[in-house]
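User: Hey, my collaborator sent me this sequence without any context and asked if I could get a structure. I don't really work with proteins. Can you help?
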Amino acid sequence: MPRRPHSLRPRAALAIAAAALTAAAGFGVDAALAAHKTISRSQASAVATAVNLRHSDLPTLKQQANPITPAERQSSAAVDACIGESSPSQALADIQSPDFVGPAPTQLTVNSETQILPSAGVVASDLAAIRRPHALICLRDALGKALVTTAPKGSTFSVSVARLPATLPGTDGVAAVRVTAIFHVKSGSTTVTVPAYVDDVGFAYGQAEVALDVVSTTAPPSSSLETRLAVLLVARARADRLNATHIASPRAKGTPTPGPSS
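Assistant: No problem. I've predicted the 3D structure and written it out in structure-token form, which is a compact way to encode the shape of the chain:
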């Protein structure tokens, strides 16, 4: 579920702002989540990595490194605390995919993040927290604060957050939001208005919290793309070809819709 969209991290906020200035997210993967099998700390990173997006899912996009920096962890912890979610320090693993980036003018960026928590109960509590009205205020304020220092010079912007309808059968719950930032960028004697959209479609499954982030400028993200990728992530989370013991072994091989409208 959207613990905090990657757009709330300082580096991603900078990317959104830069995009605004320029204009003036296979099923044969094994995971240990099926039937809510218990995942240990030693297994968690391998499971999270197996669920996440990889370049073969989006071969026409450019892959870019997307590490979680200490500054991003700190800002994420602040957002989680505001929302009332579990502390990131509780996670057994927190792995995000590379960024997959498309060309201008839409400046499409897609990534995913999978967290493995100590128990399904912690995940359920996080899902309840992100569904409360106060969570939208936390998300809006966090992105607004990040954009203050990253928005194009001389520009103004507004930020809004709204829930998206989301249906992903086979999960323990879904939460989805769209963050919209409208930039007014001065270009000579004129002012250009550039919208940027961040869709975060997240779901819970056992000990896992999985989030799909899709960022685009000028137009909302494609609902068909989000549907395809969300279905793929659910399938990986539910894969049952290996149990938790096997996935930890060095010998191991590695018609729902999320609902966002474009």
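In plain terms: The chain has one domain: 6-247. You can pass these tokens on to your collaborator as they are.
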